[in-house]
Design brief:
Strand content: 35-45%
Shape: elongated
Largest sheet: 4 strands, antiparallel
Distance between the termini: 57 Å
Radius of gyration: 35 Å
Strand order of the largest sheet: 8-55-54-53
């Protein structure tokens, strides 16, 4: 039997702590101290150095405390202090770890590979403190469709063609081969090896290959200084070293395939204004000059060419002097007739005749005409104008495909009518995106002409990578700005316009009266206020003020005056961050203060990490975590809008490539640890937390209050 006795000279403190003789109670810090420690700091402020009874410490609550791990006081640099220097009891021997996953301390002895201070997965460090693999996936959306001559391996304007071997409409731009299947574009990485200015692209039906004709053109010397040819066989590019090259202006050069004489021919204009015709022998790697087309001058600024397989002639149109020319393999014939309009036509053979498609530079009219060898016959012009479009005939589907720089949907001519193929967002046009339970919602507009108001489209990008359109209320059409954000209180995505709140929920659009008549952009949800906040733009005053929108739909100014570009909620600080023209502003209890900023791009709240992410004009990506900006990588593409999908833990970024092709890049995280299912009574990820006790389930359990945020009682 072991027996013990309690000394009667022990001092009993108010919290039942027993202090030995010669010591007194420190009830504030629940410890035993010497009388000298209790007297040394009387009247002194905290952190004043003190020295007494062999202790060299500092004043805290007017007590001279002995610093260091194991004194039972939580001091600067300590995560815990349980009054001892032992590990394995929930506070390690250095007082820097709670000895569990989620304490923010990497503990390799416990098998942790990371510890980001939470037990949430899909944020780079999973609920078991195992590092998640970061992956970026690039999804091509739509190719650029501009009309300017392009360099650096890109093809733009009137360069769409039909690949008979593979049975697809194809164009090459921004380092990708794009194919149209009648429903959507598919982009495959694969640019020709040459980096010179591309003259034209043509399908060589004899060889069954795609030819990219390029040259380095010296503008000052008005001459070709280097020429090249690239050939695509459907698998790989091959460079062909040419013996010679036509010395033609790069923007007045058109190539096509002569199906009668089984060769590629090209027509163009020299710097001196002379027209030339050449044929290409790929096997011999040589160009041969043929009879010159008549009538070209230095005033010629536009031409196009296509081969009429039905009549066996090459057809060429030009603007100045206006004419339609035909080459029968031996001689040229010139006709004064040209398609209606002011030039900029694109020609194609539709299986029966030559078709010209273009756009009126003034009116919103599509120019569409057929050539019978002597006369152009105009057809119906229902779709809006398409200036200098890319045109090709899909032999398999028997449709004329038209894709234009006007940022309008691709259209197809069935032989009797036009069909609009609005199956994907248009390249070259900015998009503003947000996320709701359905996926990523993006708004995009175009103006038919300078005098017309914007026409808005609403796109839904699902996690599987597919695009679909959603209706836009008529009252939102014509607005200069139209953006959405998800309001978890209203359980709908909300847009503000024309004195109403427009709510897009599971059952479609509904409206709520609002006193707001001005436009609001950059909407986001503020969990601390449980309100939507956004930037109210006043065109008369040229100001952009931060406002909060209450349940009645009224707005109240909550931010400093100025010109603001965007706003996001910083959950770790439980406050808003404003983006402006000169940097960022942080909300504090006493007001707004300037904050360190890598740039002025839109701000994105990452709810799982409790961080703010942004991009800069140099396509660099940044993250602010606990007040510090960290560089998170760069992209070779120009970064547009970005949105965070909290359900998947995915950052979805829209990118525009050099010439305007549209891509979506998505960053996700994955690990070997199972994801939490949020099923009551189950702990799928093994972190010891079930259902609503697990922060992984916040979207289901507390959708208005993300991790790290301090929210009012609901």
């Amino acid at each position: 039997m072991v027996m013990a006795c309690l000394r009667d000279d022990l001092v009993v403190c108010s919290n039942d702590l027993l202090c030995p003789i010669g010591r007194v109670c420190d009830d504030v810090h629940a410890s035993c101290i010497t009388p000298g420690q209790a007297e040394a700091c009387v009247g002194l402020t905290d952190e004043t150095p003190c020295s007494v009874d062999g202790i060299f410490g500092y004043c805290l609550d007017q007590i001279c405390v002995d610093p260091g791990c194991g004194n039972g006081l939580l001091e600067k640099g300590e995560l815990c202090d349980d009054g001892n220097r032992a590990s394995g009891d929930g506070c390690d021997d250095m007082c820097r770890s709670l000895e569990r996953c989620g304490d923010g301390v990497d503990d390799a002895s416990r098998g942790e590979q990371c510890d980001d201070g939470n037990s949430i997965s899909l944020d780079g460090c999973d609920s078991q403190c195992i590092t998640e693999v970061e992956t970026w996936a690039t999804a091509p959306v739509s190719p650029a469709s501009g009309s300017s001559p392009a360099a650096s391996g890109s093809v733009m304007g009137r360069r769409m063609f039909y690949d008979r071997t593979r049975g697809t409409i194809t164009t090459i731009v921004d380092g990708y081969l794009w194919t149209w299947n009648g429903a959507t574009w598919t982009g495959t990485p694969g640019a020709p090896p040459e980096q010179d200015q591309i003259h034209d692209v043509v399908f060589d039906a004899t060889r069954g290959t795609v030819l990219v004709i390029s040259a380095a053109y010296d503008e000052l010397a008005a001459t070709v200084v280097r020429n090249s040819l690239s050939e695509w066989d459907g698998t790989a590019w091959q460079s062909v070293a040419l013996a010679n090259s036509p010395n033609l202006l790069p923007y007045l050069f058109r190539a096509t395939y002569d199906s009668v004489r089984k060769r590629v021919v090209a027509v163009g204009v020299t710097a001196a204004g002379a027209g030339q015709l050449w044929s290409l022998d790929v096997a011999a790697a040589r160009w041969t000059q043929l009879a010159a087309p008549p009538g070209f001058t230095t005033l010629t600024s536009s031409l196009d060419a296509a081969f009429d397989a039905a009549r066996g002639v090459l057809v060429v149109t030009r603007d100045v002097p206006a004419a339609t020319l035909e080459w029968n393999g031996t001689s040229w014939t010139s006709h004064a007739a040209v398609p209606a309009g002011q030039g900029g036509w694109s020609l194609a053979f539709d299986g029966a005749r030559i078709v010209a498609v273009g756009g009126d530079p003034v009116a919103d009219v599509l120019l569409h005409a057929f050539w019978n060898g002597t006369t152009w016959t105009a057809r119906a012009t229902t779709p809006g104008r398409r200036l200098e479009p890319q045109v090709a005939y899909d032999v398999a589907r028997q449709r004329l495909v038209v894709y234009s720089e006007a940022r309008r949907p691709l259209i197809e001519w069935t032989g009797t009518a036009w069909s609009v193929r609005a199956t994907h967002p248009r390249s070259g046009e900015p998009m503003h995106c947000s996320h709701d339970p359905r996926g990523v919602l993006c708004t995009q507009s175009f103006q038919p002409d300078r005098s017309s108001p914007p026409v808005w489209d609403l796109w839904l990008y699902a996690s599987a990578g597919s695009w679909s359109t959603l209706p836009v209320p008529a009252s939102l059409q014509g607005l200069d700005s139209f953006t959405l954000t998800y309001d978890p209180v209203r359980r709908a995505s909300v847009a503000v316009g024309n004195g109403e709140l427009h709510l897009l929920g599971g059952g479609g659009w509904t409206t709520q009266p609002s006193s707001i008549t001005l436009q609001i952009h950059g909407l986001t949800f503020d969990p601390r206020r449980q309100l939507l906040v956004g930037i109210l733009y006043d065109p008369m005053m040229a100001t952009s003020d931060l406002v909060a929108i209450n349940a009645a739909g009224d707005a109240a100014m909550i931010g400093p005056p100025g010109y603001h570009l965007g706003v996001a909620f910083d959950a770790r600080r439980n406050a808003l961050v404003l983006g402006g023209t000169i940097g960022h502003l942080d909300e504090t209890p006493t007001g707004w203060i300037p904050a360190v900023s890598p740039g002025v791009s839109p701000l994105v709240a990452n709810q799982r990490r409790g961080s703010i992410e942004t991009t800069t004009g140099d396509s660099r990506m940044w993250e602010r975590l606990d007040g510090d900006w960290i560089h998170r990588g760069s992209s070779s593409l120009n970064i547009g809008d970005a949105v965070y999908d909290a359900g998947r833990g995915a950052l979805v970024v829209l990118h525009m490539a050099t010439y305007g092709s549209l891509f979506v890049r998505t960053r996700t995280y994955a690990s070997t640890t199972p994801l939490e299912t949020c099923t009551p009574g189950a702990d799928a990820d093994g972190d010891g937390l079930e259902h609503c006790a697990d922060l992984d389930c916040w979207l289901e359990c507390t959708p208005t209050c993300p991790p790290y945020a301090v929210c009012p009682a609901l």
